[in-house]
User: Fold these one by one.
Assistant:
Number 1:
Amino acid sequence: MHSELKVFSDQAPEVLEQHHTDKAAMARVLASAGVRYEQWQANQPLSESPQQDEVIQAYQADIDRLIADEGYQTVDVVSMVPDHPDKAAFRQKFLEEHQHSEDEVRFFVEGQGLFTLHINGKVYEVLCTKGDLISVPANTPHWFDMGPAPRFVAIRLFNNPDGWVANFTGSDIAQRFNRLG
């Protein structure tokens, strides 16, 4: 499982314009589109099934830096496993293009997820894997696919978790691009 970035014109999903698997190159391309993409390392080993406090403690220095940089107010940990009874409903919830009034910040402690961003006539498919942080800027149209057999543990940072609402654009663009798995 490797992170990768694919860039397409929003008018030509069949034409791959850029493809990167080098994380430094991915970070440069995404930064040019206004998207934060970083790699974090745990400052301590995690147990087999770590609880929220253990996960946050292992990444506390990076979390504190991001809070200082961006003013995030709350942090939590979310996880998904392939045998979750509501996995299909959770997957479907984020597959259509939407945006949020605040940044969508995810750090992948384990597993993977496909964030697809629609920015200035381009579509950026970002396959995030263990160690990747992505911050989708507020009001950026995007969609997320956790795949048919989702497995991930992710740290989320919020300005206001009560305000984290998906505002769907009504576009069918997400249906024309790749899905995970």
Number 2:
Amino acid sequence: MSKLKKQIFIVGLFFPVVVLLSTICWHEYHLSCPELVRLRAVGYDPRSLISGHYLQLEIDWDKSDCRQFNDRQCPKDQFKKHYRYYVPETSAMALEEKIRSGKYVVELEFAYSKSKDPRLINLLFDGKKWSDEQNND
């Protein structure tokens, strides 16, 4: 074989491997770095002697912006009906009052990927993390 034919053979041999590896890396990157989505929520503060203080929150699909998802439709079947957001005892009553007052836009922030269950990351009031709001009050 001539030198040019050997080079073409080597490139032809390794090109599919490089394409396959780059596709795998691309998919792994997108699985490991899910997008963040914010969904409107309503809820209340139940108390449990066993579980402690948490906010029981439900996603308000009617007020949530579904355009943040790739297909521009809310994937309601991928999310749970209720989410528990655990908070320190000292903050529970204040957060409950904020939610019940109706003065704030309450949102839940999720790490979302089509292939995995959404993971609750933060509770937001008017776009700010609740912990940041507590420090400002």
Number 3:
Amino acid sequence: MIGKTIKELEIGDTAEFSKTVSESDIYQFAGITGDFNPAHMNEEYAKKTFFKTRIAHGMLSAGFISTTIGTKLPGTGSIYISQTLSFLAPVRIGDTITARVEVIEIMAGKNRVRLKTVCVNQQGTQVLDGEAVVSPPKRPRK
């Protein structure tokens, strides 16, 4: 199943993906990326920080945006071109993060769409804000 092509997208189209962040997610992300910053890994260290507890890697939340783009909108076959990110609030173990993308510009001649990208936690607090440029999939030639 291929995602939406440029001709199937409209300004205002949206999609979401939600996930509850577990301690295991943080350990796995650290193992995959090599980011063992003690703010994520060591509770005793984290108690002395501004956040007073461990926080998830910011890029873990950004990964939920990638999931939304690659599986929902535009969907399977999409290629990331660029992404801007502003990290607005911490994500803690047990937070449920919802990534949301919205089509805000269609550049049909270049087969590109610009998406507003946000992540919010279970209380509705925005934890991440940004924009992505994506190349939607094309239908295979017959």
Number 4:
Amino acid sequence: MPYFVRPSVNLNTEEKEVAYSLAHAAIAATVGGEDNEVMKMATVNSLLKTYLPYYYWVGFYLVHGQRQLIVGPYQGTLGCLYIDFGRGVCGAVAASERTKIVADTHVLEEGKEHIACDPNSRSEIVLPVHRADGSLLGVFDVDSTEEASFDAVDQRWLEQILRDTFAV
């Protein structure tokens, strides 16, 4: 594992609720009223990675052209540069605009269902990110080095944080 990235540490449900509550408040206090999407993305990444110890890789893939994503602001190891809509978990979420939780990425078909940018990533959650006008800005991707790190608590909080930050 790269020296600058620490291994994931899963939290129980109660610990997640507290961590997300604190992160949500910190994000709102830091970017509330700001318009710059890149600044907001960088701040969301930083604060969520700070508060949630099971976040190994966290970042945004942005809509590019008609049917492609490009890597946006992120924290962690090298991300994929381009992802076609429908390819991998991020591409599937971009195409469907529906959140997807993967308990074990290693069981997915490589190159089609999952794109392994980093073999240390073991589970992930990917969410669509919409602007206030409803247009798709991109997807928000979080990976963990542990299996089954993400659940309905993550989904609920992340959907709220992304809505409050980008769809206002």
